[in-house]
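input
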Amino acid sequence: MSRTTSPTAEDFVPFATAALDFHRALNLPGGPLVTTRAELDALHSHLVSLHGLLDAHAVRVEQFVPAEGDPLRAARTRIWQAADHVHAAYHAAPRPGSGEVPSREACQAGLPEGAPELTICQRHQRTAHLVRRRTTPADLHAPFTGLVRR
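output
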């Protein structure tokens, strides 16, 4: 990349992908059998960032090329669903130190565990607000999001 050109998505997304592949290759074969809360928090953060990237692309593209916007919106929805599942897995994972597993209702109460554990819920709720503005409940619960526009 030259000093006169500005960085683009093509410059950074392949590095993020390679970093995930590298992390998996190094940490999962010999790592713990149970995923740690720190790992789940990092995965949730990654998914929320990917959701934001897909959202930005979908919003911009759908105005000009609806046939491209539809699959991007569907991908955005599926990434949100993945983030939602990772968030649930985080709360189902044992707490560090005590090994205690919190109740499912703890997160819905608003302040499940305090800092620093609260950061995953804050991130999740911020993204959920965007999801509610841009996605219908039917989209979130549809078995198939691959709209076909011809």
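quick obs: The chain has a mean pLDDT of 80.
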